[in-house]
Amino acid sequence: MRDTMIFYRSFYEAVKDLPIDEQGKIYNAIFNYALNFKEDKLTGVSKADWTLIKPQLDANIKRYQNGTKPKQSKSKTEANTKQKISKVEANKNNNDIIITNNIIYRSFNHLSITQEQFNKLELEYSKEQIDEVLDAIENFSGNKKYKSLYLTVKNWIKDKPKKNELKDDLVFNVMNKIK
């Protein structure tokens, strides 16, 4: 049982053109259901109007019931404590990885590339090519939008000839000069 309820204009509009005795039945049904949680049995046009009004009353009752539940402050506190512990542990692990594995080859602004990432690039490209691309990215005014220097270098350098292609070109040029 509750002391208040919401009465919508749409309820009034649905009922206002019915005969007074039908209006009274529907109004009683609305108030009895919304305040006492008891459903009256209606027939005819009253039942049709009730079918349209009842879902809104159900939604309001559900909101009311959710609002009267006691707050679970203990479980939220426990969850926060657990969360803080997890975050601290995760940060410790990440810091260990950073200290042991991520020696920075080069950095500027908010971007950096590790020695390990540089070594991966150096398998396919020369140091000069990689440094040239890094210089170009550093001088590019739009580099603020980039999130990963390694991926940006990979994207920018892909059109340059790879190490094995450079050797093939050199051999081809030498062979042509000999002929």
Arithmetic mean pLDDT: 80
> In terms of structural class, how would the helical and strand content be classed?
mainly alpha
Per DSSP, the total helix count is 8
Could you name the ranges where pLDDT drops below 50 across 5 or more consecutive residues? 86-100
- What topology, given as strand order, has the largest sheet? 1-2
Shape: rod-shaped
Fraction of residues in helix: 55-70%
What's the story with the biggest beta sheet?
2 strands, antiparallel
Count of domain modules:
3
Count of extended strands = 2
How widely separated are the two ends? 105 Å
Radius of gyration: 37 Å
User: How big a fraction of the residues is strand?
Assistant: 5-15%
Q: Secondary-structure element order, as H and E? A: HHHHEEHHHH
Structure description:
Helices cover 69% and strands 5% of the residues. Helix 2 runs parallel beside helix 3 and helix 6 packs across helix 7. About 8% of the residues have low confidence. It has 3 domains: 60 residues, no CATH class; 30 residues; 77 residues, no CATH class. It contains 8 helices and 2 strands; from the N terminus they run ααααββαααα. It is mainly α and 179 residues long. The protein is rod-shaped. Strand 1 and strand 2 form a beta hairpin. It has a two-stranded antiparallel ribbon with strand order 1-2.
